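Comment thread on ticket #2218

A.B. wrote:
> Attaching the input chain for the structure job we discussed in standup.
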Amino acid sequence: MKKLFKIVGWVLLFCFLTILTQIGGIVLLLSLWISKFWKKEFKFKLLLIFLVSYLFITFLIVPFVAPIFGREKIRHSEKIKPTNYISILLNRNYVVPKLNNLLSATALRLKDSEIEISYLDANFPFINKFPLLPHLSHNDGKKIDISLIYEAKNGKISNKQKSISGYGVFEKPKENEYNQIKECKSNGYFQYDYPKYLTFGKINSELWFSERGTKKLINFILKNNGLGKMFIEPHLKSRLKLTNSKIRYHGCRAVRHDDHIHIQLK
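C.D. wrote:
> Ran it. Output below, let me know if you need it in another format.
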């Protein structure tokens, strides 16, 4: 029975690491193989082997193999940066070249602005239709989440965020705005605001949602012909007076989009 529990434990760990990072399960198997043939014993041996192997493969192998599957790392620049490095560490920073070009074109339009493109989860490096949980559609290299823009009380734009993960701190509907969140939850879609549990900690409480900054960023993104759809919560679309037909509602089966913007190619 003890052996059975051990096997089940390893299987669950393999699945968890694969779901989280795509390559983690394979790296775990590789680490177990290395540990078996490396006779020297010391504390946390397997953990050390796993961490070294994972970092080596993530940063030195995956970027060179991903183009075979039509994907590449998001190209960083003065205007394109990760909201945090969690997405990079978990291999969630890969897109098809056309999406990289869209981001670069948008960044060029922002060159005289204080606004930056702070991205969140994009896609895994390999295999179309491989799910990038908890997202429903980030599975083909054509989708990416981008952080909202915030400002200080004096109106100065800030590129800091309101949570460590970049998710889960919502710009809620005002009393006079349509409350899609309430509508979805009342219809049984309990998951709709679950990102509130994924903040990893709230920060920068002195910042406020920047209507002008977020609208400017959105309008520059909309100038790209390759853009297929953009998702943002209905009350923010109304508040920012956005009318472009590419701005759609994502549906109650997804999660609320008043903590980030989702964009995808045609």
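A.B. wrote:
> Thanks. Noting for the ticket: Residues 215 and 242 are 8 Å apart (CA to CA).
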